[in-house]
Amino acid sequence: MAEMKIRKQGLLTTIQDQGRTGAQQYGIVVGGAMDPWALRLCNVLTGNDPGAAGLEVTMMGPELSFSEPVRIAVGGADLSAAVDGEKIPLWTAVLVPAGSVLSFGEPKFGVRAYIAVAGGVDVPEVMGSRATYIRAKLGGFRGRELRNGDVIPLGTPGRTTGRRRMHHELLPDYHKGRPVRIIPGPDAPGSLSLFMSETYRITNDVDRMGSRLEGPEMDVPEAEGMLSDAVAMGTIQITAGGQPILLMADRQTTGGYPRIATVIHEDLPKVAQMRPGEVIRFSTVPVEVAQQLRRHREKQFRRYVKLAAGGP
Amino acid sequence: MSMSMEMQPLGDAAVRVPFGSVISEEVHEAIRRFCAVLQEKKDPAVIEWVPAYCAVTVFYDPLHWSYEEAAAAMAVWKTEAEDVPLAAPKRWLIPVCYGSGYGPDLSDTAEHCGMTEQEVIDRHTRAEYRIYMLGFIPGFPYLGGMDPAIAVERRRTPRQKVSAGAVGIAGEQTGIYPLQSPGGWQLIGQTPVRLYDRNRQSLVLMQAGDRLRFSRITPSEYESIARRVERGDYEIEWEDVT
Question: Are B241 and B90 in contact (CB under 8 A)?
């Protein structure tokens, strides 16, 4: 069976998939890829099921090698992925010879890159998912980030894909000029116009759980009597200090701060790739519009998966 | 605000279904009934749900349902739920070693409440607690029903590390830390049992609606149970609530 070896660990490399749904009522966090679309696309490129597990690489990538020739695809952030020192294109299924080294260099765009490997990463499923949730030592490889010397078993590749490149129309919209679109509620004050007229900055306090933002203080009335309630990926809470937290993959299942809005699915990839110091603006959108965008993207994706199943 | 009794979206794939605006046993029972309906329907459009003190948030597949359709389905099920009989909840028995090395804040808590340590322990073990919801971290139970006489404010400075199994008080709430984490609760004791165990078939045993009682154990009983937990041959006891 093919294996992947971690020759040098990066800043934070974990095994992720589309997350662990179904047990939030027990406090089990969903987790999964911060930029789930990027991982889905890379999976399809390598002939995997879109929900297969791959690696999430953060800023400073690791050095990996494989025991057998394997086809991989790297997408999401551009962290200068290279095979044996030669740069490889993003969103393209590339064959890596046995013993060759996949490495990363300068982080050129974004924060999180995804590596899909044909056959997927073969670690045990825990409650239907292979996603690593470090805080509870759950899932992934021994419930932790990957370290020097780890050897990770790979699954059996399905069909061969050749050097397939992702159609540009399917790539996540990382375009930065547009405000991030949000759906207000459930604890939004009467008007979110102040929140939307202001600019916020991503602080250094950024991890898989969420990002703290910094901007004009926001006073949310009745925050005192707020009872813990459910949150979602992209939910924006206003903390006691009046500053927002944007919740991401490893968010808690419930929170005690007012939830003024939630980022729409279509704009989550952009948020997942924003770095500390970057500026973020928001605009509201009706839930119907957000759902239309989501359905459109999903349909496009499913059409592509069907097409891709036809072979190279 | 969330106090509103109207349904509201939580992003583009969830709907918040409200049942009240204050913590009460009636609201909680209505929530349990609604969750029983969700469980029984097994509708493919429903992905999962999160019961909280006053609302249930239902995560659905937006390719299946628009927000309007989701809200309409919830309204129907909410009405149906009014006549649903509830299964008997479980009452979990949690052994706790109080004070000294096990609950470093017990003496401060007793002093704050103007009673002896023994009185605090008696009041803490006498009450039956209701698990209103689970959340925050895997298996963390939000408990209601603590004797207000032993209420004590959070510590000024939270601890960097609170060990798994720590039993604490924060205001009028009491709880158990399922994982090691930072925390500001006043720690009065420690349980050797694991509310969350990643090596167990069910990672989390309890569910919202269950009851819970604490029972006092000695340090030697603590050590003996802890050894059995470590070996994987200790099961948390429970009884049917009748």
Answer: yes
The pLDDT value given to residue B1:
43
In a domain, A298, yes or no: no
| Interface residue of A133, A191, A287, A295 to substitute, partner B, most B CBs within 10 Å | A287
Contact flag A254-B133 (C-beta cutoff 8 Å): yes
Task: Give a yes or no: residue A25 inside a domain.
Answer: yes
Reported as a single tens digit per residue, the pLDDT across B145-160 is 999 999 999 888 889 8
Report CB contact under 8 Å: B134, A26: yes
Q: What is the ipTM of this complex?
A: 0.95
Give the number of other Cβ atoms within 10 Å of residue A119's Cβ.
20
Query: Residue A122's pLDDT is what?
Result: 96
Residues 118-177 of A with CB under 8 A from B: 126-127, 135-138, 143
Q: Which of A25, A225, A226 lies at the smallest CB-CB distance from B50?
A: A25
Q: Which domains, ranges and CATH numbers included, belong to chain B? A: 8-81 (3.30.1360.40), 90-240 (2.40.100.10)
CB atoms within 10 A of CB A206: 18
Dihedrals φ, ψ of B131, to 5°? -85, 105
